[in-house]
Amino acid sequence: xxxxxxxxxxxxxxxxxxxxxxxxxxxxxxxxxxxxxxxxxxxxxxxxxxxxxxxxxxxxxxxxxxxxxxxxxxxxxxxxxxxxxxxxxxxxxxxxxxxxxxxxxxxxxxxxxxxxxxxxxxxxxxxxxxxxxxxxxxxxxxxxxxxxxxxxxxxxxxxxxxxxxxxxxxxxxxxxxxxxxxxxxxxxxxxxxxxxxxxxxxxxxxxxxxxxxxxxxxxxxxxxxxxxxxxxxxxxxxxxxxxxxxxxxxxxxxxxxxxxxxxxxxxxxxxxxxxxxxxxxxxxxxxxxxxxxxxxxxxxxxxxxxxxxxxxxxxxxxxxxxxxxxxxxxxxxxxxxxxxxxxxxxxxxxxxxxxxxxxxxxxxxxxxxxxxxxxxx
Length: 377
Hints:
The protein has helices at residues 2-9, 88-98, 110-115, 123-136, 152-161, 193-203, 206-222, 233-243, 250-259, 277-286, 325-328, 330-344, 352-376, and strands at residues 34-41, 53-61, 73-77, 101-105, 144-148, 176-179, 264-269, 295-297, 303-305, 314-318. By secondary structure, it is an alpha/beta fold. The termini are far apart.
């Protein structure tokens, strides 16, 4: 039982709550404006709420700092637990160096479930929430999607599975950046499934939240789990999110990205205690990259392998950095990311229509070649 609780404890390693490898990240305000906008979302999604749910979304948007109206737009999506503040080091550096618009919304936490019991943090709910947010802030094209951990699931679900949804604002993405994605299968920390599923489902009930908010820290302490929690909701938002990711769809998303030849920047740490490194290497393979293609940094944060930066997809790994290595090593990663953006985002973003057109051309050429071959015979 103690071992299982320890696994669940791994889900709470967020920088605002914990020391990561001796480094404590302060939850300070952005250098750029943090804004609020009210959205109505998920209309007709629930029978009991046909008019939808209202959310006050807090987000960071550097639009006011970008002089060019046609500047690139980067959408950042945090994992669970997390907020828009997770992106602070990237918002500041990318905006100053590239003059890009960066938008980073916060996804709903359990205060949303307190208000709307039917909201259960499913990937479909988050995808529609994200789309309605993008509509509200008038974004219809994203030049780069930048995600950490479970943030990859709702964003790519909206991009691929909900592509035919009316007024989909994430149809066109020019490039991707994935930090520590949890992969295509259930991660070790979320097993056994019956236990994490039961815990998450229980916490989604009003009684479950009331009981565990009051007794949870004491129960974990008695069980011998060393847990530093300011808010036990953070533990269970991670659990519930990972229960509802539909992670098996990620492989299809990666296949479409490869088919459209969209550039990808990928980063992870091998000592991630939440996601086993084998999963990271599975993702590497699905992105048409090999271990020898990795730019690698050793445990002393020294460059140990140059990798292959000539490919359209780029990947960087660290021996030490944990699940939040994108924050611990943000100075290194952001420099590579700036080079990646400069190299790739001047290209016209591919769309499914472009790909279909290219395939039709290829098919026509093949048909013509076959006809000529038959005439020779």
